[in-house]
Amino acid sequence: MTLSEYDHIRMFKCDVKITTVLEVLKEFKKGSTVVDPLPTIRVKFDYPLKYPIIAEFTRPQGWSITDFIEVIATKYKEIYEEEDITGEYGIWGHGIGDLWLEGFSKGEDGVYQLDIGS
User: Fold this and answer.
1) Strand 40-45 vs strand 111-117: parallel, antiparallel, or unpaired?
2) What is the pLDDT of residue 60?
3) What pTM did the predictor assign?
4) Among candidates 55, 22, 18, which has minimal Cα distance to 40?
5) What are the Cα distances from residue 104, in Å, to 9, 11, 16, 82, 96?
6) In this predicted structure, what is the pLDDT of residue 100?
7) Are 31 and 64 in contact (CB under 8 A)?
8) What is the pLDDT of residues 80-104, one digit of tens each?
9) Which of 30, 40, 89, 113 is most buried when burial is the number of CB atoms within 10 A of its CB?
């Protein structure tokens, strides 16, 4: 896993496999890099979903890089589990084991956009 912060507009570049991220994050110091000091964030999940969603997450002390990545991986696991039962997301083309979080940025609307690759 690689991680770097760049630009003044809070864009992050990282390469982390969704299925192994929770194990890898143990290597990082909790709270090491602040992604967002606000307690509530909104994140758009749109790949590989036919029906994208915006999920809201709350953490009173704000969001470190490790907290942010952990909640993204956990939500993807929930999405894939729910898809098996309900089919509500219309997942196409990729299993969860194919997904990589390559980066993310916060849009002008305050919603985080994920750069998910496969």
Assistant:
1) parallel
2) 96
3) 0.82
4) 55
5) 11, 6, 12, 24, 18
6) 87
7) yes
8) 999 999 999 999 999 998 898 888 8
9) 89
Q: How many domains does the chain have?
A: 1
Burial 4-37 (b: 16+ CB within 10 A, else e): eeeeeeeebebebbbbebeeebeebeeeeeebbe
Q: Which domain holds residue 64?
A: 2-117
The Cα–Cα gap between 49 and 35 comes to 25
The type of residue at 106 is: K
* Buried-state track 79-101, b at ≥16 Cβ within 10 A, e below 16: bbeeeeeeeebebeeeebeebbb
Q: What is the mean pLDDT of residues 71-82?
A: 94
